[in-house]
Amino acid sequence: MTEPRAETQAQAPELPGYRHVYSGKVRDLYAPLDPATGRANEEQLLLVASDRISAYDYVLDSLIPDKGRVLTQLSLWWFEQLADLVPHHVLAADGPTIPERVAGRAVLVRRLRMLPVECIARAYLTGHGLADYQATGAVCGVPLPPGLVEASRLARPIFTPTSKAPLGEHDEQLTHPQVAELIGADLTARAGELTTTILARAGQIAEPRGILIADTKVEYGLSEAGDLVLADEVLTPDSSRFWPAAAYEPGRTQVSYDKQYVRNWLTSPASGWDPRSGTAPPPLPAEVVERTRETYVAAYETLTGRRFDA
To answer: How far is CA 161 from CA 128, 157, 168, 192, 193, in A?
Structure first.
């Protein structure tokens, strides 16, 4: 078996021919440089998915081997499945424009004017959505029927956007009128309808393959013509909750194909860490790292039917 590959450090690597622009929790952005002038290309970006992992608004010191490659390859697969619904920002995922050091986890993309909201759709009630429902009978102002419980399946996906908080701060849930104040009523309606349509389509694809997609977060940018363009990542274990369909049972917490294994360890007595302490989480044990990697790979292979080549 080939050993999984991991980054040697959490910092964004230097890439010849590119200038580092920004690093988020997981991804690093670079601007291509004109070889003749050294000036940055204003129309393109190189988007690199790292092996970093975040939890409770912290980026952990531990890296998850191959995570960036899984996220990138799974997003590319989903972009293909959704191509008839919405255009995406990818220009190239291989070839001479992709530096060898980040091959497999980098894509060259169009620069877009990004929407200042996180577009989230929910098909099942869990997480912050459940807490909101229990307090108000609604999620982000969307009323729901009484009597729903943890992991209840909704009659149809609902649009539950949040703010985009700076690194280290919490995203805040937004009502549709609040989003309309930020981006306008027409764009809010278009983004909401498209986000719920994407989740519905993804659920139709994933459920026969043995995975339920409880919720997902997508990002959009605007083209010069004002059209919504799907950007960043899509329908990965970092941006979605994936549940094994065979184990689904409403009324309890579900087994998950995402980083919930990391969250569970961090809040267990074994970690000795309290998310409310204001201190950074401890490094992950080797077993937690390996189990998390296995979960990401299993999600990719189950959904795509392809073997992940480490």
So the answer is: 12, 13, 19, 8, 12
Tokens of 140: 């982000």
Question: How does DSSP classify residue 88?
Answer: B
Give the closest residue to 223 by CA, choosing from 93, 97, 88.
88
Place of tokens 């899509």: 234
Cβ proximity of 194 and 228 under 8 Å: yes
In sequence order, which residues have a C-beta less than 8 Å from that of residue 225 and are 6 or more positions away?
Answer: none
Average pLDDT of the chain to the nearest whole number: 93
Q: Indicate the helix (H) or strand (E) that contains 77.
A: helix 67-81
Tokens of 82: 């959704």
Three-state secondary structure of 216-281 = EEEEEEECCCCCEEEECCCCCCCCEEEEEHHHCCCCCCCCCCCCHHHHHHHCCCCCCCCCCCCCCC
pTM over the 0.85 mark: yes
Identify the pLDDT of residue 292.
Answer: 95
Q: What is the pLDDT of residues 120-141, one digit of tens each?
A: 999 999 999 999 999 999 999 9
Q: Is 159 helix (H, G, I), strand (E, B) or coil?
A: strand
DSSP state, 173?
B
- Amino acid 2: pLDDT: 32
